[in-house]
């Protein structure tokens, strides 16, 4: 072998070794959950490259999933392509509770979940399941974006998570496979709730029995009669097709349970301050887009279920509802006093 040939062989071997060590930065993290900096400088920007996953329970065309996607886009753009976040919709990476556990462990890096199931991971989050504590969406947003609301994102650190931002989720109302037109009709019903213990007390106060279960099981449980009723906002009622098997909707808007975007604290702590800043800001900047998409889809889904012939009853007098759940609020008042005060002040 002549000298020239030997040189080019050694060069090739060196290139191969470098590529192997750097892992090529080609998105292996999506399959393995690896998120170590590859440091190969092969991304467009300076610094380590990352390939992260985000678990989402809703399908790709749902407004909240669109919010996740906007968040991921902004992160990619602002990191010059160094940080990619692949959104996995439709609970492909697991139902919400399982996704939160995986994110706590760092096996999945990001997720968007409802604050409903979060209550079992961080006590403060149970406050969102207390009925009628918010007057309307504006009130919710004034609280969430205020000092106390934003501090709830950081308070998740003790639960192995870091909150990044809030998304809209409207208000939740009851629907059933059986006729449902008044508070009286709920008595004795088996009602599916989001998995947390505040919901058990709420259903008990309404004379119903709570059946906590993952979102993905609700359609078949309504269909087979395992449960009589469930509750959610218009977008979920429509997108999950629950209206097909539970076509009686009673609009009592008992809860306003916002969505939250989360990152694993294990992952977060390994990021540079600059990258944390990019991710945090991208999450905050995706909120407005999600809210706009939410508002559009809320109207579309209401129109669609009306067109499908769902029986819709509006509750005109909320007083009996508020009276019925008052003992629950009272029993949690001391536990949530500072948060409830901030919610009250945001009116
Ligand atoms: C929806 C929420 C989902 C899920 C679902 C449920 O409103 O967006 O993340 O929590 O409710 O009832 O389980």
Mind telling me the CATH class of the largest domain? Alpha Beta
Distance between the termini: 82 Å
Strand-and-helix sequence, N→C? Answer: HHEHEHEHHHEEEHEHEHHEEHHEHH
If classified by CATH, what would the architecture of the largest domain be? 3-Layer(aba) Sandwich
Number of helices: 15
Shape: globular
- Beta content comes to 15-25%
Name the CATH superfamily classification of the largest domain. Answer: Bacterial extracellular solute-binding protein, family 7
Main sheet summary = 5 strands, mixed
According to CATH, what is the topology of the largest domain? D-Maltodextrin-Binding Protein, domain 2
Please, what is the oligomeric state? single chain
> What structural class do helix, strand and pairing data support?
alpha/beta
Strand order across the largest sheet:
2-1-3-10-4
What's the structural domain tally? Answer: 2
Quick summary of this structure?
This protein has 347 residues and is of the alpha/beta class. The chain has helices spanning 3-22, 29-32, 63-78, 96-105, 115-118, 137-144, 147-154, 197-205, 218-224, 234-239, 242-245, 265-270, 273-307, 319-333, 337-345, and strands at residues 50-56, 83-88, 110-114, 161-167, 172-176, 190-193, 209-212, 229-232, 248-255, 259-264, 311-314.
Topology record:
Layout: H1 3-22, H2 29-32, E1 50-56, H3 63-78, E2 83-88, H4 96-105, E3 110-114, H5 115-118, H6 137-144, H7 147-154, E4 161-167, E5 172-176, E6 190-193, H8 197-205, E7 209-212, H9 218-224, E8 229-232, H10 234-239, H11 242-245, E9 248-255, E10 259-264, H12 265-270, H13 273-307, E11 311-314, H14 319-333, H15 337-345
Parallel strand pairs: 1-2, 1-3, 6-7, 9-11
Antiparallel strand pairs: 3-10, 4-10, 5-8, 5-9
Helix pairs in contact: 3-13, 8-14
The structure holds beta-D-galactopyranuronic acid.
